[in-house]
Amino acid sequence: MKKFLFKHIFYPWARIYWKVFRPHTRGARGLLIRDNHILLVKHAMRDYWSLPGGGIKKSENTFDGLLRELWEELRIPPQWITHHEKLGVYFNQREGKTDAVEILILICTDSQFVRGYELDDAKWFHLGLLPFDTSPATMRRIREYESGTRDIERVW
Asked: Which one of 49, 52, 88, 114 is most buried, counting C-beta atoms within 10 A?
């Protein structure tokens, strides 16, 4: 039911709003790494695996906003994040809005999580065994992380 509501009611109306008003939004996503594994999520309105994260409020910095999103979506407490660094800032204009997405690399000390209502699924995957239905943008970010490049391709 929730997937139906997101896909067929909320998302189409949001896309109309974005096309008319062309807002500028900020987002953050995390490359959560633990023992050569990465945490990927499937959102209710999408059919592919992607990095966890979401919108950043105007009053938040990127790191604090991402920690809030990780808590809301997965119940991952900030204490489990021992290190973070920026992979890059990427821009997406496909949905009619200008979305600046900052990707942070996060080292996580625990593999526990509780999947929130926004998510259909969440799993830890070995970096060498990623699912075939991982989004192309997510795959590009993971490959940049693995190769050690930073902020190389600005398009999401």
From this structure: 52
